[in-house]
Known about the structure:
Elements: E1 7-9, H1 16-23, H2 27-37, E2 53-55, H3 59-75, E3 91-100, E4 106-118, E5 124-135, E6 138-139, H4 143-154, E7 158-162, E8 170-171, H5 174-191, H6 195-208, H7 211-219, H8 222-227, E9 240-244, E10 253-262, E11 268-277, H9 283-288, E12 301-311, E13 317-328, E14 331-342
Antiparallel strand pairs: 1-2, 3-4, 3-14, 4-5, 5-6, 5-7, 7-8, 9-10, 10-11, 11-12, 12-13, 13-14
Amino acid sequence: xxxxxxxxxxxxxxxxxxxxxxxxxxxxxxxxxxxxxxxxxxxxxxxxxxxxxxxxxxxxxxxxxxxxxxxxxxxxxxxxxxxxxxxxxxxxxxxxxxxxxxxxxxxxxxxxxxxxxxxxxxxxxxxxxxxxxxxxxxxxxxxxxxxxxxxxxxxxxxxxxxxxxxxxxxxxxxxxxxxxxxxxxxxxxxxxxxxxxxxxxxxxxxxxxxxxxxxxxxxxxxxxxxxxxxxxxxxxxxxxxxxxxxxxxxxxxxxxxxxxxxxxxxxxxxxxxxxxxxxxxxxxxxxxxxxxxxxxxxxxxxxxxxxxxxxxxxxxxxxxxxxxxxxxxxxxxxxxxxxxxxxxxxxxxxxxxxxx
Length: 356
């Protein structure tokens, strides 16, 4: 068959399906293409009875169609556009690395447990528990760090409402979270004695007593932004703008994102989302958590990169990573790395300690 011509002469044993297979396109597409350009008396119905020639796409059109079909087939390997609990393993190991100019690097390691149950309203109630924190390979031994971990432990696990579209929306049972701390507060005060500890516990209680404030604090943490993204991120074909917390406990900044894919690995799909900060603020304002109304001088410059490794077979999240890089007047100010590894049997072939 000469694909450079737009007509194909039907042979005795030809069927619509066999001709389409030779061309490498679907029979439905071939039928639709022929019926679009042929005379009315030669329309293809259920079979090729009475058809001597089929109008076919030219070679260039077929090549473009195959490329599109191949891309659609590859995108079937991506996670669903809607959240489902089968995406996640039950346990992950997490590593965060904080690098800042003229300061010693800090590495935090901890474990993460995730569980889901369906929410009758929409989406899921997701319980998250972190534990086993180590700083630079050692258990925390200073009093404030121990108190901070104890306070967080008193409200764990934390249950969030996450709709099927993704992203943390609300606390599932905020009142229970607060009462959990209230019930354990006396024990904390008995163990952590002194004015500094007392002031810390008072401030912690004040913070968790403001539901909107507390929710924003969790939503601004890089771990939760990466672990529970908007599911549509995995399927974006064009650039888009979206607010993102590049610094915890501050305000979100406008970023321009794009997503790319690597399907070459035998077992995994790699999804890479990168973004550049486009916000009217400078670094100092961002660090102080104060968003100005007037245009700032020395606008912040920074980049966001997130990588996800999901199984082609099960679509389970096997590994995720992120890197946020901030610049101060064109000079590197800080880099924050996040690496999340599934503890279960499926492990990614490609591993990274930091995002290069």
